[in-house]
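[step 3/7] fold_predict: job queued, chain A
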Amino acid sequence: QQVVSAATPDEMIAAMQSDCNDTAQRLYDSQADLFATVGDTFEGYNANIDAVKQWYASTVSETEALGERMLENSKVYFQAVVDTVAPDDREALSDAIDTYYDAIYDDAYGDYYDAVYSDLYHDIYERFYSGVISDAFDTEEYSKVSEAMSGECENYSDSMSGVYNAISDARSEIYDVGSDAWSAFYDNEFTLENIFREPVVNVEKTEG
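[step 4/7] structure written:
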């Protein structure tokens, strides 16, 4: 997914929701590929440990990148609101902020949290830590299995924390944007600079 250049408010909401869904689906698909590559043996796990680590890292990087895109697309959304809603239509402005909060903070990121942080991490824990690795205690040298279990636990915990933090940071940004939009519209300030805390550069303008 990429940052959208221009769209209506409804189109932007749909695009941002789709981005969340598509990102989660990519991680589902890559996990399925990983499980197929590793198989259900301890030997397969050890032979593909780099791929396991790469998948964990991808969950963090994909979630962080999603948050960056969501912030940039939020700017496009609120520019579309400013462009299409009359400044004196307080009800429409209120609805636009509520829609943004409900659709993105609650629904899109709520679903992403459930899909990635809850479901995908549950599945990989069951497959490797409490599955392939734990079962190997019956057939492999204890120290070798114990080392693999410790490594898996560390990789799992570290990346899971990274995903949680990335989701939390993104939702905080969305919450702040919604709050700042309320303040800006209340003060009759209808520019992105008054909605977003960081400066928004209009590349179409040139200094004269």
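[step 5/7] annotate
The chain has a mean pLDDT of 90.
The chain is about 80% helix and 0% strand.
exit 0
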